[in-house]
């Protein structure tokens, strides 16, 4: 049977256990999925049925007999544990050199140029929790108009501003200036607009916008687009790939919005890849060390999944994966270096254990292979392992 559509859904930060090299990143013992499983009442029957708990390394609960899909786990081969690196690897790029990070804040050469071009001063310039930074610097920002610039353990330059002080269009303009400055050795993975509103305690608004580096090599998105296949990005996907080979952005305001948009596109007659990122797991729960909220969000996705799979056509393939970890039970509020899960489901997919694979890039290579494309990207296709005879 020819495959007409692939739905690739990234559950942002839903790692399933530390990698062998996690000690290099300070992430020994991290296991995002296990931390959610430990929460009272946790249940994800639809993913369990597909083989989620049959995956290698999951030893804290039993899997099922005869899973309904293919299942496995993948190692990150790239140097890093951030969103950009993880998604690029899924799409076929292995980053041998880590993107730059700034544990001591950004150097004067960057901030002086940024201040000169924006005409605004700077507050913070440290690695910081995205919510705490608003409480610590929000009032001063409102009084002075200075921009709150901060980073994290990831390769990010984040700019927070109150929407009543800095209009969205102006904040986005400042982000574009920062993106233009941050190149070469200072080429961070993402510049992120972080607008907020209200009075203390301040609230982030849903108008976040990411400005990523352009992927330096060919991705599965490029390969599919070049051959005339549709590629539909939902959530942060357009931003993560800097719009390269993508015609239109479909941003989302929440997991629920992303799931609704995915379901709506499933009703359309496209031919190609629907590439989805659901960011709430990471943004609202992982970074905020909220295991109960994280577990609830996973259960909400699983309930939606039960309905979504009934709408799939015989020629559709569904893949569910992640891009890194963000364990809500560890002391750290940053991403964690973990294996990611992979569930593959559809009428044409057989039940098979894919074991532990050496790179996220096997996903992108397989997607291309399902459409008959010999994409010049990293990774090894597992198409012949998952398709029924």
Structure notes:
This protein is α/β, with parallel strands linked by helices and 389 residues long. It folds into two domains: 5-96 and 213-386, Alkaline Phosphatase, subunit A (3-Layer(aba) Sandwich); 108-212, Alpha-Beta Plaits, CATH 3.30.70. The protein has 13 helices and 13 strands. The model has no long low-confidence stretch (mean pLDDT 97). The N and C termini lie close together (9 Å). It has a seven-stranded mixed beta sheet with strand order 9-10-1-11-12-2-13. Strands 3, 4, 5, 6, 7 and 8 form a six-stranded mixed beta sheet that branches. It is globular, with a radius of gyration of 20 Å.
For the structure shown, list the relevant keywords.
389 residues; alpha/beta; Alkaline Phosphatase, subunit A; Alpha-Beta Plaits; 2 domains; seven-stranded mixed β-sheet; six-stranded mixed β-sheet
Strand line-up across the major sheet: 9-10-1-11-12-2-13
Please state the second-level CATH architecture of the largest domain. 3-Layer(aba) Sandwich
The rounded Rg comes to 20 Å
- State the helix count: 13
The strand count comes to 13
Model regions low in confidence, pLDDT < 50 over at least 5 residues: none
Fraction in helix? 25-40%
How far apart are the termini? 9 Å
What number of structural domains do the residues give?
A: 2
Molecular shape:
globular
Average of per-residue pLDDT values: 97
CATH homologous superfamily heading of the largest domain: Alkaline Phosphatase, subunit A
Strand content: 15-25%
CATH domain class of the largest domain:
Alpha Beta
Order of helices and strands: EHHEHHEHEEHEEEHEHHEHHEEEHH
Using the coordinates shown, work out and report the CATH topology of the largest domain. Answer: Alkaline Phosphatase, subunit A
Q: Summarize the main sheet.
A: 7 strands, mixed
Category by helix and strand content: alpha/beta
């Amino acid at each position: 049977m020819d495959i007409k559509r692939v739905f690739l859904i990234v559950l942002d930060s839903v790692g399933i256990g530390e990698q062998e090299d996690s000690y290099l990143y300070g992430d020994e013992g991290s296991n995002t999925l296990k931390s959610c499983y430990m929460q009272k009442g946790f249940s994800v029957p639809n993913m369990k049925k597909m083989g989620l708990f049959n995956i290698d390394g999951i030893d804290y609960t039993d899997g099922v007999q005869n899973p309904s899909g293919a299942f496995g786990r993948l190692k990150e081969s790239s140097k890093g544990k951030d969103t950009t690196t993880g998604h690029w690897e899924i799409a076929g790029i292995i980053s041998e050199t880590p993107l730059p990070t700034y544990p001591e804040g950004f150097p004067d050469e960057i901030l002086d140029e940024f201040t000169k071009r924006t005409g605004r001063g700077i507050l913070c310039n440290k690695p910081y929790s995205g919510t705490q930074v608003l409480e610590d610097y929000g009032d001063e920002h409102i009084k002075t108009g200075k921009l709150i610039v901060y980073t994290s353990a990831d390769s990010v330059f984040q700019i927070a501003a109150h929407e009543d002080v800095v209009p969205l269009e102006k904040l986005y303009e400042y982000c574009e200036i920062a993106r233009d400055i941050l190149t070469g050795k200072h080429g961070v993975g993402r510049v992120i607009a972080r607008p907020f509103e209200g009075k203390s305690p301040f609230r982030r608004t849903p108008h976040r916008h990411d400005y990523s580096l352009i992927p330096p090599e060919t991705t599965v998105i490029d390969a599919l687009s070049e051959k005339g296949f549709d590629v539909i990005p939902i959530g942060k996907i357009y931003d993560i790939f800097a719009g390269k080979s993508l015609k239109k952005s479909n941003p989302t305001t929440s997991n629920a919005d992303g799931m609704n948009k995915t379901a709506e596109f499933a009703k359309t007659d496209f031919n190609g890849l629907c590439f989805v990122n659901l960011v709430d797991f990471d943004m609202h729960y992982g970074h905020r060390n909220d295991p109960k909220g994280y577990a609830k969000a996973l259960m909400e996705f699983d309930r939606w999944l039960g309905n979504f799979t009934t709408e799939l056509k015989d020629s559709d393939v569904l893949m569910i994966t992640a891009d890194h970890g963000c364990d809500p039970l560890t002391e750290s509020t940053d991403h964690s270096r973990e294996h990611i899960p992979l569930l593959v489901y559809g009428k044409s997919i057989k039940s098979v254990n894919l074991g532990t694979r050496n790179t996220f890039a096997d996903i992108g290579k397989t997607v291309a292979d399902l459409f008959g494309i010999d994409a010049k990207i990293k990774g090894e296709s597992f198409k012949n392992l998952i398709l029924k005879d």
